[in-house]
Amino acid sequence: MRKSYRIKKEDEFQDVFENGESVANRNFVIYHLQRDQKHFRVGISVGKKVAHTAVMRNQIKRYIRQSLLELKPDLDPQADFLVIARRHATQLDMAETKRNLVHVLKLAGVLASQDVTTI
């Protein structure tokens, strides 16, 4: 995913975190905020309490980025959102990560309707 699709700056993270709405499931929390822009932007956070080693944190982030890349055509282009991993996300493989992200993104209203069984 290109850098223009990422939220990197602390003040942008805080803006979405403080002014956005949140939804969650067992593995992920999504904060989302509507903006006037040409494509969505995403910030990913995996804390040390979630996965104690950098290897595990980076693996979870890679799974999230790849899932979002595959879902890119169905994501709302007007949305900025944060994906925050919870502790149970360390036990997921790639397919389960994508399935859980689809679920929570639908709850947030960021993802267009999609059949989860085909994923």
Automatic annotation (TrEMBL):
UniProt xrefs under Gene3D superfamilies: 3.30.230.10
Organism, as annotated: Lacticaseibacillus suilingensis
Family assignment from sequence similarity: Belongs to the RnpA family.
HAMAP family: RNase_P (MF_00227)
One Gene Ontology MF term: ribonuclease P activity
Name this polypeptide is given: Ribonuclease P protein component
Superkingdom as given in the UniProt entry: Bacteria
Segments forming a coiled coil: none
Family annotation (PANTHER family): RIBONUCLEASE P PROTEIN COMPONENT (PTHR33992)
PROSITE patterns reported for this sequence: RIBONUCLEASE_P (PS00648)
Purpose of the protein: RNaseP catalyzes the removal of the 5'-leader sequence from pre-tRNA to produce the mature 5'-terminus. It can also cleave other RNA substrates such as 4.5S RNA. The protein component plays an auxiliary but essential role in vivo by binding to the 5'-leader sequence and broadening the substrate specificity of the ribozyme.
Record Pfam families: Ribonuclease_P
The keyword Cytoplasm is assigned to this record: no
Oligomer and partners: Consists of a catalytic RNA component (M1 or rnpB) and a protein subunit.
Record EC number: 3.1.26.5
Reactions catalysed, as given in the entry: Endonucleolytic cleavage of RNA, removing 5'-extranucleotides from tRNA precursor
